[in-house]
Amino acid sequence: MAYISRHFIEKLVAQVDIVDIIDKAVPLKKKGHHYVACCPFHNEKTPSFTVFQNTQTYHCFGCGASGNVISFLTTHRHLDFVEAVEELAAYASLEIEYDNNVQANSAPKEDFSPLYALMTQIATYFQTQLYEPHAEMARDYLNKRGLTRKIGNKLQLGYAPMGWDNLLNAFGDSKENKALLIKLGMLSEKEAGKVYDRFRHRIMFPIHDLRGRVIAFGGRTLNENKKEAKYLNSPETVLFKKSQTLYNGHYVRTLRDAKNVIIVEGYMDVAALMQFGIENVVATLGTSTTTEHLKKLFRSYAELVFCFDGDDAGRKAAWKALENSLSVLESGRHVKFMFLPQNEDPDSFIRQYGRATFLEQVKHAMPLSQFLFEQKTQSLNLNTPEGQASLVKAVKPLLEKLPAGTYADLMWHKLNELTPHANLKKSTTLSNNIQRNKSHTTFTKPKDKLSLAEKAIRLLLLNPQLAKTVRKVEKLHILQIENIILLEEILEFIGLNPHVNTGMILAHYQGTPSENLIRYFMNQNYLLSSEEMQREFNSMMEKLYQHYDEQRYQMLLQNFSALTEVEKQELQSLYQRVRSKQP
Asked: Which domain holds residue 402?
């Protein structure tokens, strides 16, 4: 695996303007030397979100969110680090540079851009086909289901024509393209080596990744009387993993006003709900909702509502979703379950009862805790020891999956209430989770009283140009002062990059153990003028030099008999400096 060069990341952050990037997502207003807006990370009426063009950073004085242009994209757009770098690189028209020496035997990253480009062309082809004369049956089907052309265009619906080689003829004009179509699962191979279109005479639903790129398709058959699958999905490919992808997931991530996301089971359920103006909806792709699905949704939403049919199959699917949810249910996250009447699905329900009634059902969806305990207690007599023992046996393994925290504590408390004579204690698994979480902590907030080095770092992050007055500091690391090495590294980095800004420093440390500490210092308010800041920084550095002189002097003095002539001269010079500083 090849890693993106850290030098490239620094160059990228230096080349883009954070104001331009954030302004596209959150309209900014100039206020003095800065730009302000209502914070995109929490609800507020008075703008406290500030973008500093000179440092290329942002900070919200309401919720404390801060960072540089990369961290804004990872937080606001819910991209991972690599996706954010790729998006910025495309914006800046830069080709990403990789460092193949980071890991031995690393291979260059495979370029999937031709595959994405081909999938986009195929999606356009299917959309065009939907409005050709031979697609009348497809259009009639969509009209019968009540879908307008507007919603069809929004979802990029299309049509795969009858025949075995339409797509093959349109895009498989070369051996290379044919190979790509097979790799993408758009063509199937026979044993004799012949290939044919996988999707034929079907309504086509493009499936997108979180960046909005087409990576696969789902097809709804129009051959009602033939024995073939009603819905057919693309097979898994290098672009498409069912366990990581949700239909319409790319769209719900962009919604700013939705308070939750509704999870349904089919393409047409999504289409019908969106037709009625309910856009915060996704569907699984022929598989149960996985923990990967849930993690991605929880990046954007604190509440997930599963919507299932009210029959036995729906309740079984709901229980599977519950089991997969437990391991990601940290405090502040909510999972609810909404069960529709017998023989109803979201598509049929909203058409019969309307949008308002459907949203009322969502509003009163059952919390996971209620569903769990109702399911496990409905056939038990909790007034008997046997009933309580059975409940503990059934529920205890489920609660052990919960991450340590307030929610887990409350769930255990609920089980204790229902089984008061069981003398139930939290399992060692739960306490082990707590210890494991503690052991993985990579950032500890500095003490209230910062060290000299930490105070200097804080000032440097506000104004990296303070470092211009610093003389060589490569020996300061011998000092027993908190984060002195980090200060030395930052001074060296600024020395090598004279025009560096705060955003570039954060980019330099992005993904390193020091990143959170850098962020913490960035958030510290320090209301000083440039001149006052320079005087204070110089004073701190002088004190550090003095500490170095004193420590080096004592070290040499203790080893006087073994000193070289050069070291004796250094000792004499240190003696004069230390003595001159004494009162």
From this structure: 380-439
